[in-house]
Amino acid sequence: xxxxxxxxxxxxxxxxxxxxxxxxxxxxxxxxxxxxxxxxxxxxxxxxxxxxxxxxxxxxxxxxxxxxxxxxxxxxxxxxxxxxxxxxxxxxxxxxxxxxxxxxxxxxxxxxxxxxxxxxxxxxxxxxxxxxxxxxxxxxxxxxxxxxxxxxxxxxxxxxxxxxxxxxxxxxxxxxxxxxxxxxxxxxxxxxxxxxxxxxxxxxxxxxxxxxxxxxxxxxxxxxxxxxxxxxxxxxxxxxxxxxxxxxxxxxxxxxxxxxxxxxxxxxxxxxxxxxxxxxxxxxxxxxxxxxxxxxxxxxxxxxxxxxxxxxxxxxxxxxxxxxxxxxxxxxxxxxxxxxxxxxxxxxxxxxxxxxxxxxxxxxxxxxxxxxxxxxxxxxxxxxxxxxxxxxxxxxxxxxxxxxxxxxxxxxxxxxxxxxxxxxxxxxxxxxxxxxxxxxxxxxxxxxxxxxxxxxxxxxxxxxxxxxxxxxxxx
Length: 475
Fold this sequence. Notes:
By secondary structure, this protein is α+β, with helices and mostly antiparallel strands. Helix content is 30%, strand content 24%. The protein contains 14 helices and 25 strands. The strands form seven sheets. The chain has a five-stranded mixed beta sheet. The radius of gyration is 23 Å and the shape is globular. Residues 1-5 have low confidence and may be disordered.
């Protein structure tokens, strides 16, 4: 395990010590036969294939469906560490919802000069159709995925906020189920907090956000773009786990001022629609007229208060990477508190001085599109060739407002099970927060994504990353 020793190792202390959260696991692992573990690793892969746990890669027709690699060495987080993280995530989620309500109503944060007006008015994620509209329960982001990275014992940073349609929770659940099946004895020796309640909690949280006129038990459904979407497995998995209908746009229509889904007994009204369709495709009458994925007229029903859309339209502006750079100020403005979780230092390329700095230090920085996701449109300076750096510099000069830049962080590592034993790899963490008028519930742990290539900082599955089970220990 000599590789990348300069990075914080979440398991090992020096040459032979083990950090406290991993102590019990290390005792178990030391007595395990590597041949047995290798066999278990292959069993896990076969299980994922059998279950159909795959994702689609856009623009790669020769390999549209891929299996996300699963590593059987868990990532373990101490209870005290999780307590701090969950408190910081809750603070952040509260601020994001307050920010969204404000920018679609009085815009006090703009008047106070905390956030520049043009960052909102010129932002393609800002929806004028949401101005003056308050969602049921005043909840905009019903599900939030917060991407975290670690650089030291007590050093956690928020890398980005996912406030539109955060994905990956199905892998969190399936990873745990796989580990429980393969190593049941581990969970009797080590007390790990459960994540299996997430689907039940998600349904309860969504139901609590039903429109005011809803009588009786709210009807919840998931709207999917269809089988060709990269996250379709997750859509169908969650619908099955929650016990709700999975619908596509052509299954829905406006009936007597409500959104209704087609059933064998006619049309049935939906109270809460967990949509996994982007804003632009949600309603061809209000947004993209060519969309075949959404429901014509759903925004009119929404404005009338007859349906809850989760997450609310227009929430994408909260995960804009330029807005991200103002999050410490946003948190303090709405909560009166300093941010518990730190932001990564960020240069906004729209600002001339920042652009000049970024161009001069491009080989040292990570540059991202403000609306980008999944590592697409991103440059990792230290890993880029001279040709790639030159090409990206031209993009920056042509459209600087489309990019932000950040330092290349020394991300923590956790071990993976490699052919020659344990080997360190970089990771991030995406916990999932559920928001309703009843409060904020965070599944203990979340999705750990791991860069399986030695030295790589890119953990996204679309770029060759894998996943791990994430354990939060009980107190």
